[in-house]
Predict the structure.
Amino acid sequence: MYFSEKRFVFLSFIPIVIFIVLIFRLFYLQIIRGDYYLGRSESNFIQERPISHSRGLILDQTGVALVDNRPSHDLYVTFSLLPDTYLTVRKMAPLLGYKKSEIAQAVSQIKAAQKEFVLAKLSGSNCRQMETWLSSEHTPGVSLQGCVVHVDPALFPSRESALQELTTLLDLPVDEMQIYWESAKKKAEGLGQYKPVLLVSDLDFDSYARLEATISLGALPGLALFDSIRRRYVQGPLAAHALGYLNEISAAELLKKPEYRPGQRIGRRGIELMYEPVLRGEDGFERTVVDAKGRRFSEAIETDWLGEDRIEPSVPGNNLTLSIDLELQKAAEKAFAGKAGSVVALEAGTGFVLAMASFPAYDPNQIISRNNRKIFEGLTKDPLKPWLNKAIQEHYAPGSTFKAITAVAGFEHGALKSTDHRYCNGLFHLGRASWRCFKRDGHGNIDVVEALKTSCDVFFYNLGYDLGPDRLAETARLLGFGRKTGVELDMEIPGIMPDKAYYHKRLGYYSPGLVVNSAIGQGDVTVTPLQLAVAYDAMVNGGTLYKPQLVREVRDVDNKLLEKKHPVVVAHLQESTGNLALVKEGLSHVMEPGGTAASLLWRYDLPELSKWLRESGVRMGGKTGTAQVVRLSKLIKHLEPGQVAYSERDHAWFVGFAPAEKPEIIVVAMTEHGGFGGTASAPVVAEVVKTWYEKVRGKGRYAQQK
Amino acid sequence: MRSKNSSFRVRFPMGLVFYASLLSLVGVINIASAARATQPNLFMYQMLWLLIAAGVAAVVTFVQTRTLGLLAYPFYAGVMTLLGAVLIFGVVAKGGQRWLDIGFMRLQPSELAKIAVVLATAKFCTDYEVYGGYRLRDLIRPFNFSRPLVVIAACLWAFKKFPAYHWFAVLGIVMALVWMAFSFQQIRREGFHFYQIIALGDVILVPFLLIAVEPDLATGMIVLAISGTMVLFCGMRTLSLLIAGVFVVGVALVGWNFFLKDYQKHRVHTFLDPDADIRGKGYQAMQSMIAIGSGQVLGKGFGEGTQTQLSFLPENHTDFVFSVLAEEWGFVGAFLVLALFLGLVLSMVQIASKAQDRFASLLAVGAASVVFWHMMVNVGMVIGLLPVAGVPLPFVSYGGASMLVQVAALAICMNVSLWRKVR
């Protein structure tokens, strides 16, 4: 032994100490932090790909699809993969011998150039390397002539040239394409540039085919086509306001709703909004194995590694069966003759809505289309307010239709007896003021049935004065006035039912003249068409107020019944049915000779409808109403609608029900600025009732009603 | 005959062969898994390299230790020449100029340098022994006459290159001549020996500098560590050691600020914070730690390591081969392999302690440090204790050059063990 033993012992210590250090580190990594790193390794190679679910269908009450889904193709862009001048120059930089600062200079040189120019001259070994590089990389616009690098700026990879090529392939206007491009760019800020973001949705078949071919050749790096499912409103604008529409979820909402993915659509209006949780299913996901370059493996390997449960199938949304009937809805929309207004049809005695139309309407398919900006602007600017669902989101003075409510209030509070007669001489005096009946020479001594039939103003002026505002309001509220009906639609408004407190608050005083006005539905009292329909239903069905409903059933994708909606009773009237029958009788005479809507029996412009009304044997009841828009002096001679400017014409109401003996359907039509209710709105109601008898009644769920 | 046979058995280092064979076997199996997806036949090549290395080992083992001593300087000189040639004719790849193209294969002289410094340092330390340990001036020997000669050569070159400043060169030559006078004084006092030309410090630093400027700092450091271990083992005076320590720290600071290349600084930054940029520079270190950590206690099993098989782990059959092992065989496998390395290094030290003379003992210490430093730097790097550097794991990483060097180191040890005197 040449060196001392001590020296070797010391030398041996070094590997032993290092060994212990390494083992401790391994222990820390593999045993203490093992689970953490296992998770990290799994998130490396397991990629979860969402599987989109299909949204539930919306059907009418006979099972016809009003809203369904259709396949579509969307174009996505990954900005980081797009051809890029800077990146290309940076890739070439080592071969050209560029420093970092020189790259930017070369980029601006290429961008500024108009035609082919010499970028650099290379020496021997760099020249050979450049040659091999050019032969392996797809770099259009760069050519090597001898050892001189030529660059053609028009062909050189850049985002601009990619966008231009894309615009040509898609055959889209340049400015439209620019809008899509900018909005995609906005979405791709930050880390988004590494993910595909939606560029153009719902490609037409020709552009899809062209793009598909070009992308499969590898000529458009960074662009990809994905299949998706789009909502389709089968009947176009039909029932658009009730059905609603979808829109892309916003970034702010995504934070609150983690179950949604960016780019997904969410209900915005109507049924689509209110039944979002029902219609929306659950996205599934597929766990896939990817390697470091993001390449996928065969499904067999993936199943082997991740197990059979690697695919979680998506759950489709549930289907809704509405109470809306396609035939009635069509009839309502077809018959409506005015510019703006609404039609509501209720199933009597249940509150189910058979039709709900608002005018003017829009086509939800256009709202959800990719180029919807102009359509949005147009609809927003339209003075006829097409965005509003006027059946629930607009209120009007009920006009004469309110007289029935005044009558019921009279019975309720004992101010009116079934045998009571009141004398109409054409005028009602209160102090120094006087109100005129629309029939100048008066109706004479009439009872309530006659008063309703002829719509005598003076009878109800008297009755209203006797009741006072609070008692009138109490009954009206019982019938749903002044509060929301609770229909499952968004942005319903309650209307106004004034009482003394209301007048004190609004005007600072109360005078009996106000209730005289209210009693015939003028003044401050307002109501939505749906509220009026519900109130009339209560009056003619024997006194039960129902909550209006649009959905009858919720069924899952296998048509299994999940939920069946039943009529919901909101209130009962106290008054005996005998008195209500009197009101109903009064309303039943409205369409008979002498009634306010009698002219409907002999309309020259609607011969078929008039003939049906005369000859079908169906007895239809109803009430006309005219809501004054501008207070015209009663002394002025009655003006024809045509003589007044559109925006100053009266709103025209008509409430109808049939058959008068035992009503099955209630229909309310409101024609904005339609003039007289019996003329403008009554034919719409009659048409819906006619359709009820001809196409709906006796079939399907109404098979017993023969 | 009988006694000779039995003394062979006594001399033959069975433990050494056992540890090294087991490690090589682990290596082959591990490469079969690591390269399964990309190069499924790679483990066959590794076996081929093992065979070739065994041939080299046989030669190195059975020549006399004295012969190794005779070959030390010529081999060293040859390797230094090749290192110089690499800087001029070398092939550029992976950010450095490290390879010599010699027609049928690429030669990496820095690998040969690892063996060359073992031989030359052992030889030098044997021939130049200072009682009580080396002082700093024994390592540097500032009055060796080779020093002024180099200065004169440099001045002549400068004279030709920058004629405008010729009087600087003239001044330099005059000073060098004065310097040389001191050199002759030293020779007259000590007599002429080889160490009047070259100092121990030159033997250590020249290969380090030649490799570091390629640039391949990691290999240069390994070479420096090997010869440094040997010199420190010989013994240095405490004061000299302290001064040298301060000097090394100073050089490191200057080197960091002025000489390290960007990619080398990157690696250090990456090492300090691998999570900072997972997609970029920290990628390798992070993926390696994920591979090792996810192996947990028992590992994912042969060929089942997801980091390895799905190519998240970079360089998985060369520099990061230990991560593959730790991922697929877990803490148990990694522990056993490290234990094998510890056993191997300790038995090499054991052989050194029983060597017949100073040269043989230093050879064995040098061989042990070749294996040890590679193992430590490689494992330290893959488990995130050291910056990422291109250092292979002995006997386990794929690669002919690495295998040849490590087996040669092993063979040197076996040689020392076989040719010692047995009482």
